[in-house]
């Protein structure tokens, strides 16, 4: 008797099959986005392997260069991950410009290798957590460029609502890739025995209200009034409901992933120390906001919808409040109340 069918499932939805299915919904598609995504997936597999070996290969030490935006010394894994993704994206032949957290300037691809897409990415978010084994990840967002041959930096500075796909890959207890091409959100887990991402979280929908809030309370003394009021309400609700639980990892990918699956709210507000917020618009705020909205949640800057922002610099920063729709509505109401007071003063 053949037990192979009992041992190996042949009906698994791999990420490759999923992307091809998405492509088939657009008969006019030439498969360029499919090819680009396959190169991003390959980059994620490479980085996942490097992260797993980091301690043994001594890849967790400092590389000696300083990250342009953070003023921090780069970790070796940061440098490696950036090289991996730049090479993967350029070799796809489908990109014309790349924006990386690790590079001060945008990378314009050689005209002979150009395609119609711009990819903005943080190759290794949360890298300060590498040495202690906390989950870290890659974040990416994809835009279409009208004219790849004459692309300029101004064309790269598009609002998040123009993004056509976004995702992140989290390297933790398992390697999980969450992706949206504008038709819902799906999660895939890397099966090491197959070397393939398998769909494990189909059609992710964030609960409308959650029991968790996620914020760095060490910055509380510098918060504005709406943020301080909201966190106070989370801890000491006045409507008789139970207090929310605080969960904060300090790695955006891990904190947003938990928020997406369990509901609640993730906050990184502006404060006296960082008046423009700390998270970068193009490769942190926009991709995560895109995913959150596709999953039925909301993302807010303190002034408006995150995806409506039009950046003026590739490394621009913004405050962010994202998560369950009802929870984000509460913080929006507090900011509206503050604006009304300021207007009548």
Structure notes:
Its cofactor is Mg(2+). The protein has 345 residues and is α+β, with helices and mostly antiparallel strands. It has 2 domains: 15-203, Fructose-1,6-Bisphosphatase, Chain A, domain 1; 212-343, D-Maltodextrin-Binding Protein, domain 2, CATH 3.40.190.80. It contains 9 helices and 17 strands. Strand 7 and strand 8 (175-180) form a beta hairpin. Helix 3 packs antiparallel against helix 4. It is globular, with a radius of gyration of 20 Å. It starts with a helix and ends with a helix.
Properties at a glance:
Fructose-1,6-Bisphosphatase, Chain A, domain 1; 345 residues; disordered N terminus; alpha+beta; FBPase_C_dom; D-Maltodextrin-Binding Protein, domain 2; 5-stranded mixed β-sheet; fructose 1,6-bisphosphate 1-phosphatase activity; metal ion binding; Fructose-1,6-bisphosphatase, cytosolic; 9 helices
Radius of gyration: 20 Å
Structural class: alpha+beta
Largest sheet: 8 strands, mixed
Name of the CATH superfamily of the largest domain? Fructose-1,6-Bisphosphatase, subunit A, domain 1
Strand residue percentage:
15-25%
Rough outline: globular
Strand order of the largest sheet: 4-3-5-6-7-8-9-10
Low-confidence runs of at least 5 consecutive residues: 1-6
Topology:
Layout: H1 4-7, H2 15-24, H3 32-57, E1 62-66, E2 73-75, H4 76-91, E3 95-100, E4 107-108, E5 117-125, E6 136-144, H5 153-156, E7 165-171, E8 175-180, E9 186-191, E10 196-201, E11 212-214, H6 225-235, E12 245-246, H7 252-262, E13 265-268, E14 279-280, H8 281-294, E15 298-300, E16 317-318, E17 320-323, H9 325-344
Parallel strand pairs: 3-5, 11-12, 11-13
Antiparallel strand pairs: 1-2, 3-4, 5-6, 6-7, 7-8, 8-9, 9-10, 13-17, 14-16, 15-17
Helix pairs in contact: 2-3, 3-4, 6-9
